[in-house]
Amino acid sequence: MDLMGYIDKGGVIVYILIFLNVIGFTIILWKFFTLPRKNTIINHIKNKVTNNSSINSQIEYEVKKLESGLTIIKNIATVAPLLGLLGTVIGVYKSFEAITQNGLGDPTIFSNGIGIALITTIAGLIVAIPHQIAYNHFISLIDSIELKAKKEISE
What we know:
Layout: H1 3-10, H2 12-34, H3 38-50, H4 55-66, H5 70-102, H6 108-154
Pfam families: MotA_ExbB
InterPro entries: ExbB/TolQ_transport, MotA_ExbB_proton_chnl
Keywords: Cell membrane, Membrane, Protein transport, Transmembrane, Transmembrane helix, Transport
């Protein structure tokens, strides 16, 4: 079976996961190209802070701006395996429904439901894992930017 066959067999849940994946990776790419410019960001924060009186509140404000979009990535990382689990439950339910209607004489009767269960579980994990890794990476990067900014501004 080719990739489109698996996607079609997974049904609407796999299509939802693909949609979430596109949104998440768009944000990940945006953050990937904007956050690593640590010195530029710190200089920007320094310029903002020198023009204002409250140093800590200005640094926190600038850091919150850097964190924009990360909640979406975290939510996708959290929801994707749950959607995969929902697909698993739906697939197992379809298997039991097929067994109820046709009996246990032919094992291929309920294999379609098991296939749906496995495909949606795999898809959920494929979406969740890179989003969780990206979220952790970006949070770590933002934390280091915040610490460096506080250190340089207080000197």
